[in-house]
Batch of 2 targets.
Target 1
Amino acid sequence: MYFFTITATEEDVFILTTDGDVKFTSNSIAFLLDLMVRDDSVGAVCARTFTLGNGPVVWYQDFEYAIGHWFQKAAEHVIGSVLCSPGCFSVYRCKAIREVLTTYASNVNRATDFLTKDMGEDRWLCTLMVQAGRRIEYCAASENSTHCPETFDEFFKQRRRWVVSTLANMMLLLQQWTYVYKYNHRVSFLFLVYQAVLLFATLIGPSSVVLVICGKIHSGLKYSWNWNPVLTLLLQLMICVGFTIICLITSTKTQLTVAKILTFLYAVVMTAVAVGTALQISNDVNGLPGAEANCQNLDSLNNLRIDLEWESVAYLLKIANFPNKKEMSHYSDRYKKIK
């Protein structure tokens, strides 16, 4: 009988993290481990996550997961490093965790620490790994399914944690980009620019929605319901300020109720904006009367019409054979004043 002794280094010890409601197969784990053993600098590998559940909220998350969990992670994997390996189904290298464990387990001393450390623990851990020089990869071949929120209240609470955690960690990464760029050779300047653009687009997202609705950028309720853009802008600013005050002084139940009402109203408004903008684009393309592109040339068209009318009047005066040129000049002067 022969005995073989396999000596594993500390780089070959991994932790599989998963939630209790996640469905996966042994092949999914094998795909994750395959990427881990190829490169010792890889600190974690995440999989491709699908949603489980029924209802409109789940249907929306199907689209959201495809954008945020598939396309965005694939882009980060190609040009740099994935910034969040979700705790629902990922494999972490034990040595990589131990390297940042002291900082990861530190206490919350500031308000910003609460956003980074307590609102999204997995993203905070991945941020520390990237800062330490580790790379986090995405494996699309490894698939898993997780139960996502099916009610608005549960979904709203989850996204309120995820969004602020994402923004806080992205800001932290960009604030220390010189340090990260120096010690992590997988993080390129293009990757940092990509993250800066994503952060900027996220921050201006609410203001972009306000401008689209009020019609300041060739769209909005001005074309659908003929609302005044300035009044629409003021109304939305009042709604934003009012909802901010509600979030500061009222209970969670009241906040969720108001959020439901505003979500429904903005869904109706954005539908009207989309229809009105589509009709305006169709008018502009087809050159229909009333299109904005034609309205801009209305003055020149009116001037051309007046010139043609005056030539016609002059011709008729000539045909009428007025008794003298003085009377003809009298009618000519009167028409020029009208013009």
Note: Residues 1-5, 290-299, 334-339 have pLDDT under 50 and may be disordered.
Target 2
Amino acid sequence: MKVTLAFAKSRQTPIKKLSIPKLELKGAVLGVQLSKELEAALKIPLTEHRFWTASLNVLYWLRSHSRRFLTDIGVKISEIQRATSPLQWQHVPGKINPADLPTGGMLPAHGGHDQSFCPSHRLSGRNAISPSQASF
């Protein structure tokens, strides 16, 4: 399997206080939205995309019916479920999560030179945990 980082997006947390799981869910929605743009630009079907999250809560929510949750969470879960399959989602431990690099002070210029920025060696093999392997 070859993993390529096509683009990345970093956002600051909103002024309104949200729980960590809700922030992770917002990140998952953003990931799906960006993947739709990538699908259109590169003609790579969304079904071939893989998604990673550091949140086991998000993985659990994506394997559940969106109607079980409050409206704001249910709408986001439903949006993700309409576009992706739970099998496309994997857990990435926080220690090897490339999404945490921008918040840790990584400058964009390092992206091409720092091997730790490229997720291919970090998100393959035994480092990645599939949803079926995750314990909830």
Note: The chain has three helices and two strands.
